[in-house]
Design brief:
The complex is a heterodimer of chains A (690) and B (145). Chain A is α+β, with helices and mostly antiparallel strands and 690 residues long. Chain A is built from 22 helices and 23 strands. Chain A starts with a helix and ends in a 6-residue tail after the last strand. Classes of the chains: A alpha+beta (690), B mainly beta (145).
């Protein structure tokens, strides 16, 4: 069978699973005893193994298989969770990552895995739970015998049931009529020689107190002993859970069953929700943790399935762009049709046009939204990076990520990763002190780095904040003078925020020693350049001894912006809303001249005015003039300028299109956009007017 | 090398010009052109070609001819110049002509004609003379603003 068509799917899914493995391993590091996290890791490794084996990448399969073994033992508490094991698992993930990259580049994914495989195998010899240090990784209060059961049923990690319509109806009716529906996971002692006989007794007992509506494997397979050590049953009964349990455990060689109550059957997806724990009064005497986690796992799986599905849609951005162009074109032609419709005055046509108007508007909104991606796609790779970095530097760092659901345009997302990596490295390397120094300063040993993002008006704000030593203004000044970036006499007049900005200059680096991490010549100026190229800005706040905060402000998108349309005579121009402070109108006598510069007073402040007609050399037209003069007040930093325009048309979302190379750099124009009527309108480059 | 080339013949200020058909994407009727302030004088502005914003150059102004009010015959020839789309505004487009290469002569080398650098040659078709446009020079507006 030709596998090439599946290769892309394999690669995409592998990357997802690797990312998940990374995340889960980090989680595991944070909470070493979490059974759910272990299950999560196990599932990802298992899936990866299956996929790679199917695709014929045996080395990937082998490595994941060995990982699985180790994870399996971790789950059963046969070996305890230790930093060494985690490191080993991290290394495995790294190696798998390299393998997947190799496959991406046309390789076979065969990399030397022997040393890691040997290590993984060796982990068996690590101390068992019984005699381990400090009981790390030992599931709380879980008796050893019970752990054996789980171990003996390694394939119980995913108990996915598929109900057909008939069964779903049956379950639904039963629940409606006050019956209970139970999902039993029955375990038979592996040493049992007559498993089918035990199964028969189980069936018999269950039939006495209720009705078995489904079993996995099928009844026939169970009778023929075609099952491992356990099977699943769906039973409808009026009896409480404890009675069901007793009906099973009274049979010899049958282990403690895992009982879940099915409360609802979804009709759409073939899964069901299980709510664990029957009412307290009929709870089994020994509440066993394995059963509990099992249930939690199952309740989680439907929820987890959803975000994953949305992640797997990958579309080439050029396709999105052309889709957007086509929608734009559709809108333009729709407007033309509307004009024809008005002229023809056909009621049917008008009605249809109204419908079409709604649909195209929706379509336009959807297409614009399609380009938005949660920033999580960038953030998700940082926890691992921070962990590794902190280890390399011998520091302890806690990374807190906030607002990862914030959405940004693809164009911005693709570009923002590198600057953030740089800022994070900077914070960890230069910001956060060594643990000993932190303790001496009365701080917690753990350094904290907060990475957050949020929407603020039409912008996205991303902050990288650390609780390190902060920036030292004197040190920065001296350094800047030493490097020839600042004159000594200038230094005195600078306030702190201006001093901080010095670190963004090319050729500036305050690190006393050059580390592998940062200070390699590529300074923060690279970050600043990148941010500014994205029409964003960067600010630094710092308190010596307390911490530093880098605040990046970015437009939501580079392709779509909110703009105010204005008329100059009969030409339409667009002013990006992000620059506009307010609009106002004045009478001609409110405009004064100061040294040939037109100004006006607004709330006591002098506001310089710019006549856009002059800047754009707009040819005069015979349009009637308004009495009042409309002024759009724009800002850049803390500077403000009033732009004199003829008419304010209104606010609109516009798609920015470049003017193209041939027109070169026209200083006052930032780009063009196509209006609803098909007309091209130019976007004013407000920053150039200051 | 092919012995024959195909040319799009168009008229500007009563003279016939020819553009190699391989660089012509399409020919459209005049549509609303948005003026671009502070652009070169011979750039009429930009148009919307199916969602793309494309600059349009006025050939009359490029060659230093007097302006003319656009009429029914005015056309915009959309040129695909190394992947860049650009429109050139001409008085009219007449036809597509096949011309044997041997019928193309070097442009007259009289230096008094400032426009001669815009031409690659003169095509002879019977008694008609077609001026072959040198798009590289004409569109390389950044070089001589």
């Amino acid at each position: 069978m030709d596998m090439t068509q599946y290769l892309n799917v394999f690669l995409e899914e592998s990357r997802e699973h690797l990312q998940k493995l990374n995340e889960s391993l980090l989680d595991l590091e944070g909470s070493p005893q979490s059974r759910e996290v272990l299950d999560e890791i196990f599932r990802s490794a298992h899936t990866l193994k299956g996929m790679s084996a199917t695709m014929g990448f045996t080395d990937v399969a082998e490595l994941t298989h060995e990982m699985e073994n180790v994870l399996h033992k971790l789950r059963n508490g046969e070996i305890s969770n230790s930093p060494e094991i985690l490191d080993m698992l991290f290394k495995c993930v790294d190696l798998l990552d390299s393998m997947v990259n190799d496959i991406t580049n046309g390789g076979t994914g065969s990399l030397p895995i022997n040393h890691l495989v040997a290590k993984l195998k060796d982990s068996e010899n690590l101390p068992k739970t019984g005699g381990n240090q400090s009981g790390v990784g030992e599931p709380v209060g879980k008796p050893v015998e019970e752990s054996r059961e789980i171990q003996d049923r390694p394939d119980n990690i995913v108990t996915s049931f598929e109900f057909n319509e008939y069964e779903k109806n049956l379950i639904k009716q039963a629940i409606d009529q006050g019956f209970q529906c139970y999902h039993l996971v029955v375990n038979i002692d592996p040493r049992c020689v007559m498993k089918s006989a035990r199964a028969f007794m189980i069936f018999k007992n269950m039939e006495e107190i209720g009705e078995i509506i489904k079993s996995i494997p099928s009844v026939q397979d169970i009778e023929e002993e075609k099952f491992d050590t356990g099977f699943d049953l769906i039973v409808i009964s009026r009896e409480p859970q404890e009675v069901i349990r007793k009906g099973l455990v009274t049979i010899t060689e049958v282990g403690e069953p895992d009982i879940k109550r099915i409360t609802e059957v979804f009709t759409a997806p073939d899964t069901f929700e299980v709510i664990k724990d029957a009412p307290p009064n009929c709870q089994p005497v020994n509440t066993n943790p394995p059963a509990k986690t099992e249930a939690q796992k199952d309740t989680q799986s439907p929820a987890q399935a959803k975000p994953r599905a949305s992640q797997t849609v990958r579309v080439d951005t050029t396709r999105l762009d052309s889709l957007m162009n086509l929608v734009g074109e559709l809108v333009i032609n729709k407007t033309r049709l509307e004009q024809i419709g008005r002229f023809a005055q056909l009621p049917d046509l008008t009605e249809t046009m109204e419908q079409m108007d709604r649909i195209t508007t929706d379509l336009q909104n959807v297409v614009m939204k399609v380009r938005m991606v949660p920033i999580d796609s960038v953030f998700s790779r940082f926890p691992r990076m921070v962990r590794d970095l902190a280890r390399d530097l011998g520091k302890e760092i806690e990374l807190i990520v906030e607002g990862k659901e914030t959405e940004l345009d693809r164009t911005v997302i693709d570009e923002i990763g590198d600057p953030l990596v740089h800022l994070l490295r900077n914070s960890i390397d230069h910001g956060v002190e060594e643990p000993a120094i932190r303790l001496a300063a009365g701080k917690r040993e753990h350094g904290r780095v907060i990475l957050s993002s949020r929407h603020e008006g039409n912008n996205v704000v991303i902050e990288v904040e650390d609780d390190g030593k902060g920036l030292d203004p004197e040190k920065i000044k001296n350094k800047a003078i030493e490097k020839g970036l600042l004159l000594p006499e200038e230094a005195q007049d600078l306030d702190d925020s201006s001093v901080y900005r010095l670190v963004l200059l090319p050729g500036f680096s305050t690190a006393d020693k050059v580390t592998d991490v940062s200070g390699r010549g590529v300074g923060l100026d690279a970050v600043k350049n990148k941010i500014e190229a994205l029409s964003g800005s960067i600010h630094i706040e710092s308190v010596p001894g307390v911490g530093t905060k880098f605040k990046i402000q970015l437009p939501l998108t580079l392709a779509i912006i909110q703009a105010l349309l204005v008329l100059l005579e009969n030409e339409t121009y667009a002013i990006p809303l992000s620059f506009i402070a307010e609009t106002t109108s004045v009478t001609p006598d409110q405009i004064n001249n100061i040294q040939e510069q037109e100004v006006m007073l607004i709330r006591g402040d002098v506001l310089p005015l710019v006549r856009l007609h002059k800047v754009f050399q707009v040819p005069p037209s015979d349009l009637p003039r308004e009495e009042e003069i409309n002024i759009v007040i724009v800002r850049k930093g803390d500077k403000r300028v009033g732009l004199i325009v003829d008419t304010l048309v209104g606010q609109q979302e516009i798609v920015i299109k470049p003017l193209g190379k041939l027109l070169g750099n026209i200083p006052v124009i930032a780009g063009a956009t196509i209006l609803g009527n098909g007309q091209v309108s130019l976007i004013i480059d407000v920053a150039s007017l200051f | 090398m092919e012995t024959e080339i195909q040319l799009v013949a168009c008229a500007i200020e009563g003279e016939e010009y020819a553009i190699d058909i391989r660089s012509v994407q399409e020919i459209i009727r005049l549509q609303e052109i948005t003026r671009v302030p502070q652009a070169s004088s011979f750039v009429s502005g930009v148009i919307n070609l199916r969602g793309m914003v494309i600059p349009v150059m006025d050939m009359r102004r490029r060659f230093g001819f007097p302006g003319k009010v656009p009429d029914e015959t005015t056309r915009i020839v959309i040129i695909n110049w190394n992947g860049l789309l650009v429109g050139i505004l001409v008085d009219s487009v007449s036809e597509v002509i096949r011309l044997p290469r041997r019928d193309i002569e070097q442009p007259p080398s009289c230096s008094s004609n400032v426009n001669s650098e815009f031409f690659t040659g003169i095509g002879k078709l019977g008694s008609r003379l077609l001026i072959m446009l040198n798009l590289d020079k004409i569109l390389g507006i950044n070089s001589d603003v």
